[in-house]
Sequence to fold (191 residues):
Amino acid sequence: MLNTTVFTSPQALEGAAGVALAANVAEIVIAGAMLVLAMLGAIAFWRVNALLSDARRSMSKSLGPVSDRARVISDNLEYITQSLRTDVEALNASVRGLSDRLELASDRMEERIEDFNALMEVVQGEAEEMFLDTAATVRGVREGARAITESAAMRAPGRRVSEEEDVDPPSESVEAPTPLPSEENAAALED
Fold:
């Protein structure tokens, strides 16, 4: 191992004191510079704050009318929305009422059509019955007229019935026309 011995000379001691002194002066200069920078930063901050306060005041003055106008527009939109809502509710009520009335009218019309159909069935039944009665009466009158004619011809003394005057005997093949089938006619024909 090597032994190193440090010898300090008086000149070396003076040099060390000079470096220490220079370091102390440098520290004081740096502290002063930092103090000046801090003061300049505070002044700049204060100026920026004042500038922002002025800008905020001027904006509030210029935005005041815009804000008021936006509030008026909002109130108008709310009024229009409420008016539309009221109109839509009234329209819905009218549509519901109209729908109810149409349904009631439809029900009444359906009842009247059913009554009319029943009436037409009764009228058709009566017409068919009257037609059958008329046909039967005509047939009876025809048969009666033949019978009277034959009996008058046979009672006449010395009169002979010629071929031209020959009365047809009653025919069983003559029938009344068949009416259209319906439930009431079928029941009447079965009786």
About this structure: The longest helix spans residues 10-155. Residues 50 and 56 are 10 Å apart (CA to CA). The mean pLDDT is 81.
